[in-house]
Design a protein that fits this description.
single chain; alpha/beta; 2 domains; 29% helix; elongated; binds zinc ion
């Protein structure tokens, strides 16, 4: 999404493993076949978790099997279930493993992800990544817009992999993401509202409903 969090996750992974520390890189969503990659062309193999995985049990067993883990680095942390974030906290408190979690604050709907919310509640340190992502207007980009076939949407599934390609009519719609400033993230909402208001007058019947109100039906 160009927000720079995968790059940061990979940077930390690189720095720690370079110092000889045992690290585990985990991510959510099978978008890259078990690889965390950044737009800068860096990538590393990662373990993919889904919402059913007990992260504590998984890491605990690996921790005790091998020579021990020093750190777990999580990408796409916004998609973790809140109880999985609690499991990450247990890794820190009970196994003395450092956890670095990278994720987005808010969804394309402009609301805190549930995983992120739990992270904010539990994390020892919270740090906003300053990648200086910019909206097309030049303002700092603070919001993620989801575009379906180029048009911004505010409703839909929370988890959709971006940058899917489309071909013919039978292909699924093309979903992409765009970083925007708040003004232009909200501007898309206004555009969508205007579109929905623009209907052919011939299509509208106004019928009385109750005594004092009118229902507009199409
Ligand atoms: Zn803007």
């Amino acid at each position: 999404m160009g927000s720079g969090k995968s790059t940061q996750a990979l940077q930390i992974h690189h720095n720690l493993t370079g110092r000889g520390l045992a690290c585990m890189l985990v991510t959510q969503l099978d978008r890259q076949d078990g690889v965390v990659s950044s737009r800068l062309g860096v990538s590393a193999e990662a373990l993919i978790l889904d919402e059913t995985v007990d992260v504590f049990r998984l890491v605990n067993s690996r921790h005790h099997q091998g020579e021990g883990l020093n750190a777990v680095i999580c990408d796409e942390a916004q998609f973790y279930e809140p109880h999985q974030i609690d499991q990450l906290a247990r890794l820190v408190d009970e196994l003395d493993i450092d956890v670095y979690a990278f994720g987005l604050l808010t969804s394309f709907q402009g609301l805190l992800f549930q995983g992120t919310k739990r992270l904010l509640e539990l994390a020892d340190v919270r740090q906003e990544i300053q990648v200086e992502a910019r909206c097309w207007c030049g303002e700092r980009a603070t919001h993620n817009a989801r575009l379906v076939n180029g048009r911004q949407v505010y409703d839909g599934e929370l988890k959709i992999v971006g940058d899917t390609t489309s071909g013919g009519d039978d292909e699924p719609p093309r979903v992409t993401y765009d970083l925007r400033c708040r003004l232009h993230w909200l501007a898309g909402k206004e555009d969508a509202r205007q579109d929905s208001l623009f209907v052919d007058q011939d299509d509208i019947d106004i019928v009385p409903s109750g005594q004092n109100d009118l229902t507009v039906s199409r």
